[in-house]
Amino acid sequence: MLELIDVKKTFNAGTINEKKALNGVSIKLDEGDFVTIIGGNGAGKSTTLNAVAGVWPIDSGAIIINGKNVAGLPEHKRAAFIGRVFQDPMTGTAATMEIQENLALAKRRGNPRGLSWGIKRAEREEYHELLKMLDLGLEDRMTSKVGLLSGGQRQALTLLMATLKKPDILLLDEHTAALDPKTAAKVLELSDKIIEENHLTAMMVTHNMSAAIKHGNRLIMMNGGHIIYDVKGEEKKNLTVDMLLEKFEEASGMALSNDRMLLSKHNDM
Questions:
Q1: Domain 2-111+118-216+226-263 carries which CATH code?
Q2: Model confidence over 184-237: pLDDT tens digits?
Q3: Buried b vs exposed e over 214-224: b needs ≥16 C-beta within 10 Å?
Q4: Pick from 59, 52, 55, 54: which is nearest to 21 by CA?
Q5: CB under 8 Å to 228, separation ≥6 — which residues?
Q6: 188-193 long-range contacts, CB within 8 A, separation 24+
Q7: Exposure string over 189-210, b if 16+ CB within 10 A, otherwise e
Q8: pTM passes above 0.70
Q9: Which of 91, 93, 85, 106 lies closest to 204, judged by CA?
Q10: Nearest 5°: phi and psi at 268?
């Protein structure tokens, strides 16, 4: 479903600020894999997601989705088969439009656009049932402006919009980092449910070690633009945060010093 082959990316090449963000990253995801990616600041986590999404061109390597190398495709062309939820709840929705209008835009993504605009009754009924699944009461507020929603409600709506037309790949870029722990846990629970029910292939970047262990069927740890640990199945299920810290020190040769990860060490999402 998704394969990265020896992907390299350097920012500000040839300058004093040169940063090798990805140093030959190779990873293969099978259909239905839900991979969590963890690592400290500058490890290459979000850079990997941005490479898949086509935010900027990679220096070398291949990014293969459904058997096709998309490394040369710009971001807007990859959007047809990639769903994405960002860290900022304000990104991914149109604040001045109604909830149902946002869903209608997501539903029409990739389709030819005519002159007519309107939400048909059958669509409203579909959106009502989808929103009901979120258990946030949004099904009774479909004509409310999205800008009136809380961060958690907006992020749940964005998740729904990103998966309304089943994407080949779903990218979750620290999509709960800006939420309070209770709301974050709810959005992660919804993420699990939507991914499982739609049999989606997904990658989730997180700083939260507990969340990385609890969610998904595979965990990847990055450091310095490399994958230093890749675990799945029973071995992943049996992981603890302390074991993950040990693995980091063992694979990287250094103690983890990233405050954000250490502060989230005991946050049981």
A1: 3.40.50.300
A2: 888 899 899 999 999 999 999 998 888 899 999 999 999 889 999 999 988 888
A3: bbbbbbbbbbb
A4: 59
A5: 221, 222, 248, 251, 252
A6: 188/214, 188/215, 188/269, 190/134, 190/156, 190/159, 191/159, 191/215, 192/34, 193/133
A7: ebbeebbeeeebbbbbbbbbbb
A8: yes
A9: 85
A10: -85, 80
The DSSP bridge partners found for residue 227 are 222
Q: Write out the chain in H/E/C secondary structure.
A: CEEEEEEEEEECCCCCCCEEEEEEEEEEECCCCEEEEECCCCCCHHHHHHHHHCCCCCCEEEEEECCEECCCCCHHHHCCCEEEECCCCCCCCCCCCEHHHHHHHHHCCCCCCCCCCCCCHHHHHHHHHHHHHHCCCHHHCCCCEHHHCCHHHHHHHHHHHHHCCCCCEEEEECCCCCCCHHHHHHHHHHHHHHHHHCCCCEEEECCCHHHHHHCCCEEEEEECCEEEEEEEHHHHHCCCHHHHHHHHHHHHCCCCCCHHHHHCCCCCC
How far out from the chain centre does Cα 19 lie?
23
Residue 111 binned pLDDT confidence (cut-offs 50, 70, 90)? low
Q: Which two tokens stand for residue 4?
A: 């990265």
